[in-house]
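User: Working on a comparison across species. This one is ElaB/YqjD/DUF883 family membrane-anchored ribosome-binding protein from Spongiibacter nanhainus. Can you predict its structure so I can line it up against the others?
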Amino acid sequence: MATSTSNSHTQKSAHANVDRAAERAHEAVNRAAEFAGSGEEKLQHLAEELRNQAEQLTSSAKRHSSEATAAVEDYTRAHPFKTLSFAFLIGAVIAFLIRR
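Assistant: Here's the predicted structure for ElaB/YqjD/DUF883 family membrane-anchored ribosome-binding protein from Spongiibacter nanhainus:
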């Protein structure tokens, strides 16, 4: 009878150990899921910030491009002969460099 009591006690102890191990594994999985979820949220937030910055940079570049284009158009209208002379000079320099 001592052997059967010993086996019963061993089985209960083994079940308790398995239950504790399962509980720890479950807790570890929950922590990993929480960590992964918070990491995903951080990445989404970072991606949103980067997209906003890219949109701001694009808007700024478009604005600067429009301003530069307007300035060139205004100068060309105000000084057409200087503009043509400058364009001719640039073309001559490029042609000279290409022929070398």
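For your comparison, note: The chain has two helices and no strands.

User: Helpful, thanks.
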